[in-house]
């Protein structure tokens, strides 16, 4: 019997079993796995997710830079978001 999964040879793009991205060329679907959770994206959503995560990382880095203790007792310039 022919294996139905033959046309769905998934390719791991990055990561490992705990956290990674798998691509199915047959479907054009990207699966992002973190622990027991798997999220499926089409290309457009995947790129949107990537851009959003990238922007969040940049913003986080900025916030962490400005919040690094520098001996100055005045926390001027630090905004509390919540
Ligand atoms: Zn597939």
Q: Which features does this protein show?
A:
82 residues, alpha+beta, 1 helix, 27% strand, elongated, binds zinc ion
General description of the model:
- By secondary structure, the protein is of the alpha+beta class.
- The chain has one domain.
- It is 30% helix and 27% strand.
- It has 1 helix and 4 strands.
- The chain has a 4-stranded antiparallel sheet.
- The radius of gyration is 20 Å and the shape is elongated.
- The model has no long low-confidence stretch (mean pLDDT 86).
- Zinc ion binds next to loops.
Q: What is this structure's SSE topology?
A:
Elements: E1 11-15, E2 19-24, E3 29-34, E4 37-41, H1 43-67
Antiparallel strand pairs: 1-2, 2-3, 3-4
This protein binds zinc ion.
Residues in helices, as a percent range: 25-40%
Gross morphology is elongated
Order of helices and strands: EEEEH
The largest β sheet comes out as: 4 strands, antiparallel
Question: How would you sum up this structure in a few lines?
Answer:
With 82 residues, the protein is of the alpha+beta class.
């Amino acid at each position: 019997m022919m294996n139905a999964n033959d046309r769905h040879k998934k390719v791991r793009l990055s990561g490992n079993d705990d956290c990674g991205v798998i691509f199915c060329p047959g479907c054009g679907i990207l699966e992002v796995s973190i622990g027991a959770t798997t999220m499926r994206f089409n290309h457009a959503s995947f790129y949107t997710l990537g851009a959003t995560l990238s922007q969040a990382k940049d913003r986080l880095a900025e916030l962490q830079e400005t919040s690094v203790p520098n001996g100055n007792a005045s926390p001027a310039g630090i905004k509390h978001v919540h």
